[in-house]
Design brief:
The chain is mainly α. It contains 5 helices and no strands. Keywords: Membrane, Transmembrane, Transmembrane helix.
């Protein structure tokens, strides 16, 4: 996916940023657990999927869409596990350390899942 154009990157940046902003506003208005549902809106995935058509067409577009979606599945599994672990960690080590733990946990889990997928 390194063969994407500058316009595709710009569209992804704008679309993803707007979606994250909207999800944040909605989450702040709804508060609590209901707001958390909107905070997990898959903006980056949707932006990437939509903009694939800028750089690819035909069978190559289908192949790249499948490839992107497979990576998204790995990422979301890592996300689900890390959110569960983070909820526990924040209670025990506090908000700041819990936030750092969350990012590190998601990254490590996603790499492990990716490695297991390719074994």
């Amino acid at each position: 996916m390194f063969g994407i154009s500058l316009i595709s990157l710009i569209i992804r940046f704008i679309f993803g940023g707007l979606a994250v902003t909207l999800a944040t506003v909605i989450a702040s208005k709804l508060g609590g657990k209901l707001g958390g549902i909107f905070s997990t809106f898959p903006a980056v995935y949707l932006a990437a999927l939509v903009t694939l058509s800028v750089d690819f067409s035909g069978n190559k577009l289908v192949y790249e869409s499948i490839h992107l979606s497979a990576g998204a599945v790995i990422g979301i599994i890592g996300c689900i596990i890390s959110v569960a672990l983070t909820a526990i960690a924040v209670k025990h080590i506090g908000y700041r350390k819990g936030a750092v733990f969350s990012i590190a946990c998601w990254f490590v889990l996603s790499c492990i899942i990716l490695a297991l997928k390719h074994i």
